[in-house]
Each structure stands twice: as C-alpha cells, then as structure tokens.
Write a structure and sequence with these properties.
The complex is a heterodimer of chains A (114) and B (112). In chain A, the strands form 2 sheets. In chain A, strands 2, 4, 5, 6, 9, 10 and 11 form a 7-stranded mixed sheet that branches. Chain A has 114 residues and is mainly β. In chain A, 0% of the residues lie in helices and 53% in strands. Chain B contains no helices and 12 strands. In chain B, strands 2, 5, 6, 10, 11 and 12 form a 6-stranded mixed sheet that branches. A 4-stranded antiparallel sheet of chain B has the order 3-9-8-7, with no helix packed on it. Chain B has a two-stranded antiparallel sheet with strand order 1-4. In chain B, a hairpin with a 6-residue loop joins β10 and β11. Classes of the chains: A mainly beta (114), B mainly beta (112). The interface between A and B is medium-sized, with 26 and 23 residues.
C-alpha cells in the first residue's frame, strides 16, 4: 500500500511569487491535513480537508489556501511568498474524520523562499 | 488554551542506556495522545498512540509510553537505546478532529 506522496520534494521560489504543493493521500483515506514546520515555530497546523471541504483551519494568513479534489488528493497554495514562508510543509492523511485514528505523514516539501 | 509541552529540547544518552522523554499536555478534556519520530529531512513516523484504556501503551521499535492523568503526562520510554534511535521526537495531541497539536520536540543524540 503506497504511503502519502508529496510533490515536489524541494522548491526554491522568489519573494512575491506563488507556489502550489501537492499531496496524494493513502488510498481510501479521505481526510488530508497540512502542517508547516519551521525551526522557530515548530510544527503548526495549517488546515484540514475532508470531502472536498475545508473543515478546520489554523492561525495562518489568507495567503495560505488549499483545496481537495474528488479523489482526495489535495493541494495547498501560498501566494505572495515571504522569506518567512521557508519551511518544510507536511501533509498527513487519515482514514476518516468522524473517528480519528491516526495521521500518516508524507516526507514533506521543502520550500525555500529567496 | 490547549498546549503540549516537551520540556527537554535536547537529550544525549549512551547506546544501551534507558531513555525517557517527557511530555505534558494542557487540554480541557483528555485528548488523544501520540508520539512521532522524525529523522533528518524526513516526515513523521508514528511510534504509538493513546486513546483510552490501558495507560501503558506499546509502540514500534521497542518504545512504550505511560499516560498519567493526574500529572497530565504522556512520557515516552525505551529500556535500551540504539544508535539508530537518534532523531527528533514529537509529542502531539488531538481532540477528535484531524488537527494535531505538537510539542516543540526533543532532539535525541546517542553516543557510542
């Protein structure tokens, strides 16, 4: 059974640009959550998608957005990139949301903003 | 406000020695509790989880954790550490929705 796949693994972008990251959850998993990991702030929850709807959102500005497709694949977008957006972005998939069991993480996308 | 605290930023142990990583939580009700491990440049791997029931939880790689409600703690233990256990360890909590709240992590160094 394939795990959570995140693409690309590495990205370098310039300030002001926008970026889209992709996450394919484990087959059959319907919930996808996104996290940002930085040395200063640690691991922080961005948002969760289930059935193509955002169900939960962390404390991030509106520049951070996401969506989920009918096959449960998810993308997150960051517009008007800032240097502080440099981070490891992790995606996690879960089977369902009514009864949380565990989250399986991808290897992440390392975003560097220059 | 909800919080997960890992008081030790960095721990160094000798190979073969025992290990205990501390985790305290502050929530309105007992959350689901997890320990994850992260190797450099990698994602997070679940070591073990506690939802309810037996307060001593067994996980993968020989790890176990004990839930103590009276102390709001969920400490991770291993009786004998291997060099391959060197990594960063994260305690996390969730209240049912799929949004984990993480501690700041404890970096484990294993010396020969």
């Amino acid at each position: 059974k394939a795990g959570v796949t995140q693409t690309p693994r590495y990205l370098i972008k310039t300030r002001g640009q926008q970026v889209t990251l992709s996450c394919s959850p484990i087959s059959g998993h319907r919930s996808v959550s996104w996290y940002q990991q930085t040395p200063g702030q640690g691991l922080q929850f961005l948002f969760e998608y289930f059935s193509e709807t955002q169900r939960n959102k962390g404390n991030f500005p509106g520049r951070f957005s996401g969506r989920q497709f009918s096959n449960s694949r998810s993308e997150m977008n960051v517009s008007t990139l800032e240097l502080g957006d440099s981070a490891l972005y992790l995606c996690a998939s879960s089977l369902d949301r009514g009864r949380f069991t565990e989250a399986f993480f991808g290897q992440g996308t390392r975003l560097t903003v220059v | 406000a909800q919080s997960v605290t890992q008081p030790d930023i960095h721990i160094t142990v000798s190979e073969g020695a025992s290990l205990e990583l501390r985790c305290n939580y502050s929530y309105g009700a007992t959350p689901y509790l997890f320990w994850y491990v992260q190797s450099p440049g990698q994602g997070l791997q679940l070591l073990l989880k506690y939802f309810s029931g037996d307060t001593l939880v067994q996980g993968i790689k020989g790890f176990e954790a004990e839930f103590k409600r009276s102390q709001s703690s969920f400490n991770l233990r291993k009786p004998s550490v291997h060099w391959s256990d060197a990594a960063e360890y994260f305690c996390a909590a969730a209240t049912g929705a799929n949004n984990l709240f993480f501690g700041t992590g404890t970096r484990l160094t294993v010396i020969p």
